[in-house]
Amino acid sequence: MPDRRSAPRGPGLVFALVGAESTGKSTLAASLAQRLASDTGLHCTWVPEALRQWCNTHQRTPQRHEQADIAQLQSQAIAEAQATHDVVIADTTPLMTAVYHWQVFGSAELDAAALQWQRQHCALTLLTGLDLPWVADGFQREGPQVREPVDARLRHLLLHSGLSFGVVRGMGPARLEAALDAVSPLLRTPSASKAGGLFSRLAQRDANAPPWPWLCDCDSPECEHALRSMQLAGQAVLRV
Fold this sequence. Notes:
The protein has helices at residues 25-40, 50-58, 67-82, 94-105, 111-121, 147-160, 173-183, 197-208, 221-230, and strands at 13-18, 44-47, 87-91, 124-128, 165-168.
């Protein structure tokens, strides 16, 4: 839920959560938005997955010709939230639609537009790891066997398009803490003292992070954090 203690400054930063099915994206999106609002006083919200809403309405999975419309629904919902909030946590983006379009229909026709959207609109992309157990969720989920191919496809598209990303892992509260560590650098402001421990923890992590000067596709949080720190000069930073 959005925090309404202060007026929104939109358009806000978009932090995107992408990942294979049953990797905790929706739970993390809601928790991250609530925690950021509480810790920073910023006007925060999260945008649910358009595909889930579409499937619940139509009581089926989409056909090939309907995939582009679902990607458009997702981008529209994010844009509407961005216009009135400081920070938007997106539970998937058009990139996930493109990945499943490739997974289900064997087509990469949605990739280019999805990657362009991701590059233009997302301040940071977080990839949810496969360390959570797979849980059935009606007809929307195919099964645990599709998680590794989807994860691999996401990494391939992000890496080969030059889009930086961080992998979020951990059980329970640890997953939220990992996401907070990832997004905190983009929320540094002169009034950051309002966030208390969130930013003091980040400062300590900065001090301990090794200065690795290369791109890497491993799952080391320290390595990913070093990459994000290197790129801060070219990233949008929220000013309040």
